[in-house]
Records
---
Amino acid sequence: MAARLKGKTILITGASSGIGRSCAFEFAKTSPEDLKLILTARRIDTLNEVAAEIAKVAPGVKVHPVKLDVSKPEEVSSLVESLPQEFRAVDILVNNAGLVKGMDQAPNIKAEDIDIMFSTNVTGLINMTQAILPIFKARSDGGRGDIINIGSIAGREPYQGGSIYCATKAAVRSFTDALRRELISTRIRVIEIDPGQVETEFSIVRFYGDKEKAKKVYEGVEPLTPDDIAEIVVFAAGRRENVVIADTLVFPNHQV
Ligand code: NDP
């Protein structure tokens, strides 16, 4: 697997915490000599800390942290041009940035929270895909690359109190399926990984910082760690080119 990832340039959205951060470390550990990582998120200070930690464990990996809000089309469209030349030939895009705001019955969800969920989880992911696909298609060998979308079990099994978030993740699932079909004659792989419960900052963000409410969600379940998901992301990316891990649901034992 390490040989297949050798020298790759990997762009991860939402790399400042949770699953995205773990993916950065997992890729770096798998191919520590010559990988290039573009780590993006809104919190640039946190990304700089992630970059410094990676430098300690995998000094051969080149890391380029970028402050990027995926929900802002103007930031996404200027991203590629702003990259240093050595980071421009992106091979793998991990569309991971996402969030849930407000767990409540649909009529009670605030308009601004509906907007931030759709503009991040859906439009942001589409914006990123549109920005990076031309790089994949322009390759002299006829086009190649991996798009790895982090969906959710919520996109398959909607639940009460999560209607808007579930709708965003169902949209991700639909977009991913359609994109895979559009690219069927190319060497571009389109992969979706749908986590169940994973303990990350996500759990706190969804209850506006209320840690007690966040803890209750995990009653009776030992949630996954972000590393559990990162291992699967890197496994999918490291398969030989003809193998597409198209669609994977991963949840902790005992999650209903
Ligand atoms: P975290 O809250 O730990 O990470 C979310 C990441 O997304 C952060 O790095 C955050 O960085 C970034 N982010 C949020 N909004 C934006 C934005 N507008 N632009 C750029 N970056 C943004 O949560 P997880 O690691 O758990 O979440 C990662 C993905 O996994 C999400 O898509 C989530 O929906 C999905 N998921 C999570 C599950 C879970 O139980 N945790 C279950 C199923 C799916 P910053 O704040 O610095 O911008």
Note: Residues 13-14, 16-20, 41-43, 46, 68-71, 96-99, 120, 124, 150, 152, 195, 197-198, 200-202, 205, 226 surround NDP (CB under 6 Å).
---
Amino acid sequence: MKLWGGRFTKEEDTLMKVFNSSLEEDLALVEEDLDGSIAHAEMLVHCHIISQEEGEKIVQGLHKIKQDIATGNLVVEGNHEDIHSFVEATLTEMIGEAGKKLHTSRSRNDQVATDLKLYTKKRAKETINKLQLLIHSLEKTAVANQHVIMPGYTHLQRAQVVTFGYHLRAYIEMFRRDTKRLEQTVANLNESPLGSGALAGTTHDIDREITAEKLGFSKSTANFMDGVSDRDFIIELLSDLSIIMMHVSRLSEELILWSSQEFSFIKIDDAYATGSSIMPQKKNPDAAELIRGKTGKVYGALVSVLTTMKGLPLAYNKDMQEVKSPMFQAVDEVLLSIKMMDKMVATVQVNGEQMKQAIKAGFLNATEVADYLVQKGVPFRDAHGVVGAIVLYGEKVGKSIEQLTLEELQQFSDSIEQDIFAYVDYTNLLKRGNKKEMLD
Ligand code: ARG
């Protein structure tokens, strides 16, 4: 059964049917579509547009469809253009004439916009929940490694001492911001487009606030044309997801580097690594690499939707059907990636000894030697020059700063005394100034 056809003289070409149908991908929207239809039917009764009896038949039928799909008694398939057509056809087959009244004063255009908003809301909340689990695992691993000192890097060159726990906490901050962004996306989309009709409302006296409230929106959209053609919320969600992937990808990159033999700072649990078909010794960080790789797909979805939307005149255009699958796929990939990262973070083995060893080379306390001199009254810029010369000398004689004798150090500044050694000790220096925060 088709929703249109009266004005046509010819059947659709078979390729056109396949080309035009979104039924397969619309499976993701089935729950939202049924909820939207239930709310719409109840509103039609309330506004005396259909009878109480018709309304009850429709609503019961829609609930039955929901149930049948959940139990597997009904499969979303067949020769239908999209989920909206499928539901109407199935309903009418099930309850008869009343089913044909469901579509009174609405269009698939306001329907799909409503479905997509409900879907975006649901998936954004799911992502927020998964992020909280990841934050929790990061927190646990950070606490367990609160005092494990390691080199902190800039330009991937050893820079200053940090702790492994503190390093992980940087990611917690990123995922907290991601959470806020998702919450904002949900808040921004929270207006119901249902009742906008195809683009220009309806001559029936419907009440859009009723459907808005029933579906959990704070109010209905102000402009019909915007209501049916707005896909900003999908772009916002995909932006949020892209940023999340950028963050998990950066963490993946660090796990990959740290687990390499060159670093040997961590071991990824065997459960999240794989081997080589030819090199028996290999253990590869595939899960982290896949997260890094999937990031490109999610960015691709964002660019795809932005590009689809950029040239569209108002209001609805069929191009908009193409924004659905990139979004559905992106959300699936992101949820999987967050879950996988959560498992890796929770099981990572930390080689604190190796991290400590790495601190010994690279003059990671050079900045603190300059701080020491400043405390002795040397202006910072002069202190910087003095320590630069000490580093140059250390490199020449193959010694770190703390390995130099007091006499050697005093050649560079007579402000240097015995207490320098305690001052620049790696564990001690984390207890000074605001560096203390790294140990909290
Ligand atoms: N299947 C379409 C979509 O996903 C909704 C239907 C709009 N069709 C139409 N002829 N106006 O965007």
Note: Strands lie at 149-154, 157-163, 191-192, 219-220, 266-267, 349-350.
---
Amino acid sequence: MFGVREGTARSVVGPFMNDFRPSIRGSMGVIERYWKFLPVTNQTPVISLSEGSTPLISSRRLSVLAGRGRKVYLKYEGVNPTGSFKDRGMTMAVSKAVERGARLVICASTGNTSAAAAAYAARAGIRCAVLLPAGRIALGKLAQAFAYGAVVIGLEGDFDQCLRLVREFSNEPGTVVVNSINADRIEGQKTAAFEIVDELGDAPHLHILPVGNAGNITAYGKGCREYRSARLATRLPRMIGFQAAGAAPIYYDRVIPEPETAATAIRIGNPAGWKTAKAVLEESQGAVDIVSDEQIFSAQRWLAANEGVFVEPASAASVAGLMKFCSASSGADCPLAWVPEEGTIVCSLTGHGLKDIASVLNDRTRPVLARPNKAAILSVLERE
Ligand code: F0G
């Protein structure tokens, strides 16, 4: 019943590229687009939802804020099929899992990984189980896991405990753990770095992204390194990871036993990718920094109201970080100083705002009530 559906898992790479195209040109997934850089063979069944190829949106206002002719771009990962960057890693992880004969994928998650795992497992025709910290998952993400048909298990504990438990399934026959401790996830996620370089013509001077379990920063680091080795980029970007101040183990260099932030996606006190992230930061001469929840929510509102880009709170940590650097209080050692005149800065926006609508709806976000006539509308417009 839970086997791979016939016809779903077929090879689309390498010599068999023309054998089966899941999508029309222009909407190929990341394996099809970047197979030369990925651990796939013509035996690999490609489980894809045409993820990746996300927009790199230029932000005039943030560019002005950064000053000296610098250009700021927003890599909007929220428009991936399940609404976050996790789809890039999950197409790889689930494809390889199916190749190895898996019948079940399992993960711990703060929400987005579970949504992606559930969707790709559904596509592959295999089972998916997700372990979530009960009551601490944005509702949109929880709805996704149910809709895609995963077995949803809520634990009385935080993400770190969920991950510890999931690790115990690593050697279970027919089961594959699809957290970013699975190397295939990192392979898929590095394609975001490729896309940025492909679009800009070189690596940006500065790349800012939110950090939770530290898989994504590890993946970006790997992607940048590989593109430079292939001479497709001349440099590595300086990488800055932002953690929420109440959940910042890498910044404080110690495990945070009870991490706290309203940006639930990055509420993690003991990231699995800690060591690899540190290596990436060292290699790229980057740094890890913190932003408060207030700064995160303010950046989230700013992005939606000024750029028309609606992201979930954790995603806004990158822009909150850039704003922090641009603020007058930043000193001479501010990473912005690393970016030359007319240099490029990329902020990753990792997940869509619709995932977590509770983060924007409150007592003040009620519609203004009006009678159904033009005069009433005009009077509201005058008042508001
Ligand atoms: N942004 C969003 C929207 C996320 O969901 C996550 C992680 C991150 C940033 C941080 O990425 O963990 O690779 O450093 N979400 C994971 C999850 C933990 O379970 O969905 P990271």
Note: The two ends are 57 Å apart (CA to CA).
